[in-house]
Amino acid sequence: LPPLWSAADGAVVDTDGRSQRLHDLLGERYVVLSFIFTRCSDVNGCPLANYVLKQLQERLESDPLLNGRVRLLSLSFDPGHDTPAVLKRYAARVQAPDFDWRFLTTRTQVELEPILRAYDQTVMRDYDAEGRELGTISHLLRVYLIDPQRRIRNVYSVNFLHVDAVANDIRTLYAEDQSPRAYLQRC
User: What's the CA gap between 14 and 125, in Å, rounded?
Assistant: First the structure.
């Protein structure tokens, strides 16, 4: 899995309302980053991403090689609605108590825009015929695998987002980071 490009930084807010830098959440573990919004009803969008990440969380919890080495991040691209409190309630439905899956937002759409551009994540708010916002957002599903050096190593779309593919890619990166002897001893 060759590095594709460097993972971008940006100001984010966690479910407790604490300001953080995205780069501070990257770099110490393998990271699977998804962009979501809580009101998404497209089964091939955010619900699919959350379903796969929940399966990945369960798989990683029982994997002695990868447990504790992976962080899941779900960043909302609807900061006007997806406040820290909304994300905290949303996370409670999928997040295992002791697993490192963080739900994030930004304080404003202005803070979010450079992050979206850097990850090539296109989103468009939907409006009715009178120009009123509908509360839905059209977007392409993209989930990013980021290594501890903050490099994007894979981008999964709706056609390729499967728990087996993501888990195998994380194992591949882990194997690359280990000496062959140490890796074989752990298997």
Answer: 23
